[in-house]
Specification:
The chain has four helices and eight strands, in the order H-E-E-E-E-E-H-E-H-H-E-E. The strands form two sheets. The protein has a six-stranded mixed β-sheet, with helices on both faces. The protein has a single domain, classed as Trna Endonuclease, Chain: A, domain 1 (3-Layer(aba) Sandwich), CATH 3.40.1350. The N and C termini lie far apart (29 Å).
C-alpha cells in the first residue's frame, strides 16, 4: 500500500466540512494488470432530484526542494489516473489537491496558469491550517 501524503487527513477533513461524503480511502483501480490507488474518492449530493457528483482526489504536498520536480511527478500521476478513471469510472472527476501556498506560488504564476489550461488540470486548493477548501479550479 502506498504511503499517504502529508496532507491526507487534512484534505479528507476539508472535504467533509464542505459537505462531501468520503466513499473510498483510497480509491483502488485496476487496469490491465496494473494496480493503483488514488488518495480519496468522494461524492456530494447536489439536489435530491439530481444524481450525486462524484470525484477522486489525488493529494500532493509539493514538500520538496524543487516545486517543478513535484509538479512533474504530480502531473504524471494525474494524467495516468485520469486516463484510467475515464475507462473504469467515467462519472468521477479527478482533482489534484494542493495547499494554498503552492497554488499562490506556482499555479497562479504564468507557467502554472498555462499548465492548468493546457493539461486540463482540476485543482482543489486547501488551507492546511484551517483544514478548509479555499477554491475549486474546474
Amino acid at each position: 500500500m502506498a504511503a499517504k501524503d502529508l496532507y491526507h487527513t487534512t484534505v479528507k477533513t476539508a472535504l467533509q466540512k464542505d459537505g462531501w461524503t468520503i466513499t473510498h480511502d483510497p480509491l483502488y483501480l485496476k487496469h490491465e494488470g496494473l494496480k493503483m490507488a488514488i488518495d480519496l474518492g468522494a461524492e456530494q449530493v447536489i439536489a435530491a432530484s439530481k444524481d450525486a457528483e462524484q470525484i477522486a482526489v489525488e493529494i500532493k504536498s509539493f514538500a520538496t526542494t524543487s516545486v517543478l520536480y513535484a509538479y512533474h511527478e504530480s502531473l504524471g500521476q494525474f494524467r495516468t489516473y485520469r486516463r484510467i478513471l475515464k475507462k473504469k469510472e467515467p462519472e468521477r472527476t479527478l482533482f489534484l489537491a494542493v495547499p494554498v501556498e503552492v497554488y499562490d506560488e506556482f499555479f497562479k504564476q504564468p507557467f502554472g496558469i498555462e499548465a492548468i489550461e493546457e493539461e486540463d488540470l482540476k485543482l482543489l486548493v486547501f488551507n492546511p491550517i484551517t483544514q478548509e477548501i479555499i477554491t475549486w479550479i474546474k
